[in-house]
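Extended Data, panel c. Modelled sequence:
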Amino acid sequence: MVEFALVLPVLLLVLIGVVQFALVHHAQNVATTAAQEGARHGAAEDGDVAVAEERALDVLRSGLGSLGDGFAVAADESDESVTVTTSGSYPFIIPWLGSQTIAIDAAAAMRKEGFRSGP
């Protein structure tokens, strides 16, 4: 029983660390998916950068809840492609770290759809 009392704090710390890693990994995947979806909608035949940004924000809100509102989304358009970047921060769940956060950034580019004349 004494061994369990000695190992329990370390075991709980490792468990909290694994959960925190999983949450940050999920947030990174949501940010990447949001950038990809935004770029895909912006590159569609009738899409533009406003559509791309709105779609990326929708995916962030769906995947991260209220934390998705804290992410910044920027879309850039060139003649050939649409690029969407998402950036924000995700808070740690460990209470004794205070208000520490980790930066989450993602970017995606898609070629524009539609007919192009030329070779």
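The mean pLDDT is 89. This feature is highlighted in the accompanying rendering.
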